[in-house]
Amino acid sequence: MSLETTSSIPFSRTIFRSDATQKILAFAGLIVLFVVFSLASPNFLTFNNIVGILLATAVNGLLALGVTYIIITGGIDLSVGTVMTLSAVMTGVAIVMWGLPIPIGVLVGIGTGALAGLVNGLTISKMKVPPFIATLGVMMMAKGLALVISGARPIYFNDAPAFREIAMGSLVGMIVPDYKIPNAVLVLFGAAIIAHLILTKTVMGRYNLAIGSNEEATRLSGVNVDRWKTAIYALGGAFSGIGGVIMAARLNSAQPALGAGYELDAIAAVVIGGTSLSGGEGTILGTIIGAFIISVLTNGLRILSVPQEWQMVITGAIVILAVYADIIRRRQK
Fold first, then answer.
1. In 73-182, which ranges are continuous DSSP H helix?
2. What is the pLDDT of residues 82-105, one digit of tens each?
3. Does a structural domain hold residue 150?
4. Which of 207, 317, 320 minimizes the C-alpha distance to 271?
5. Domain with 132 in it
6. How far apart are CA 246 and CA 288, in angstroms?
């Protein structure tokens, strides 16, 4: 390649040409947000506020982990917010109404999320309903079921005080009393490690990336695409179930009207973290960075008393820029 040809390569190509570079840019953006908000307000970089950011990221991060797998396949899941709510309600029903032990109740909540994801997967893979429509339908069903099962009333865990410790207790605080980091944060990082291992070290992870890269070629190579796609949606639902358990433990109640809008934050975190909406590319690390960017941005703007309407505008603009960066990167390939 001549010097003249080399010099004519657009600057955007050198910036967005690799996944690693995009993750570095996302992490750099997170650092910039920390610096800007720290300089703008002395209340931002305090221990209590940082813990608040970590706690806010826990639920959205868990939802985003599941969405990552689904977007890598080239699909979408609009149901994660209401599935989270339904999982929280079923956890409350199992522990409070049925009197089951807390560990069994937690499994009921996670299983509810996995079942909803399984319905999504079967609808998409077997009935050939587009992911947008299929998950929109499950979103509405989950919302309705949460209200019907709970009687449209919150379910409180007052008779099971140990349940709240799942999210708001602090194993770290027991070791280092001055740093009481909620257990919900540990659950997020533990789930992220497991999600990373599944994506990078298992057959499911390899097929996940292959389906998103070229579904027809993967099918022709002998892979049962429908079965694996169904399993991937069920796995994404299981992460929503974990999110529901953590949300219920954090609030010490299952709120049946909660959940709307959480899917947008989860999808935004995944996209900002570098997962391509076209499928075939994505990392768990990028998703975690994206989730923290959403939380830091929301927290910082709130501290600066920016109206919520403008917070939504700014977040939306960042999502558009992230998608545009992905489009540029794909064009260069």
1. 80-92, 102-125, 131-150, 161-168, 171-175
2. 999 999 999 999 999 999 999 999
3. yes
4. 320
5. 57-260
6. 17
| pLDDT at residue 19, rounded to an integer | 60
Q: What is the mean pLDDT of residues 265-283?
A: 91
DSSP 3-state assignment of 33? helix
pTM of the model: 0.91
At residue 118's C-alpha, the angle toward residues 113 and 119, to 5°, is 100
- The answer as to whether 131 is a domain residue is yes
Domains held by the chain: number: 1
Query: pLDDT at residue 1 above 70?
Result: no
Q: Among 265, 147, 286, 283, which residue's Cα sits nearest to residue 208?
A: 283
The reply to whether 132 falls in a domain is: yes
- Residue 187, classed as helix, strand or coil, is helix
277 neighbors 326 (Cβ within 8 angstroms):
yes
Residue 181 pLDDT grade (very low, low, confident, very high; cuts 50, 70, 90): very high
Any domain includes 31: no
